Amino acid sequence: MKKRINLVAAVTALVVTAGCGLAGASENGNDPVGAPPVSVAPATTEPVIEETTAAPVETTTKPKPTKKATKSPTASASPVQTDWSQVPDCFSYEGKNISKAKAKAALKKASGRIYWRTEAPQLKLNFTLVKAVSWQESGWQSAIKNCDEGFGLMQVMPDTLDHMNQRFGLDYDANGNYQDNAYAGANYLAWLTRYFGDNYFKESYDLSPSKCKSHSSWCLLNVVISGYNAGYGTVDSAAKSKTLPNPDYVDSVRSLMADCPCDKY
Length: 265
Hints:
CATH topology: Lysozyme
Number of helices: 8
Strand order of the largest sheet: 1-2
Distance between the termini: 21 Å
CATH class: Mainly Alpha
Low-confidence stretches: 2-19, 23-62, 64-77
Oligomer: single chain
Helix content: 25-40%
Radius of gyration: 16 Å
Strand content: under 5%
């Protein structure tokens, strides 16, 4: 999830540094900068996480900026895998990575969950998207921590995790539980899908690649991928021109959706 809400970091650099999704808001951490279309925050009772869990009540607070200045390089605890091309300049390991089989299972389960069961049951993620974002972000490594504080399979940022937990009444432990990390990242993708779908795509939540003319066109799938890395506020600011603020990151994820080294696992 290099993730976080606000983030005005350099877009191309983010691709080189594993994307660090879950970015977030505008530069001031509040509403989008400039004069983008009126924002419509997702509704108030979702997402349902487990069938036995009561529907959480959403608050009105939007995600706060989460991107932090890069720290001095930290020696990694174990060698990084050689088939992941997005190795960050500064990272470390906290614990041991789970197997790729377990990572795949967790991402599949997270991608198959309906996060807006009551208010937007038609909003569905897909494994192809979630696996590609995760591979771009972490190379499916559950123990990797970037120096911007992004962690795990989906590179969930601390402030983004706090936002998701507080907004929806959840208790994801994205640093201590790789399955929660997958859920938190997928949940954020679902949140972005609804947010952008409501604001720019006439309440359509169709993430089909066929809706996109190219990897750089203004379509829901590309916009959601862009928002995961650059933040919804940064995407809002680019909405008037219908251009993606981080086209290289989006192109990389879209390419991984079609052909990913992770497909061999």
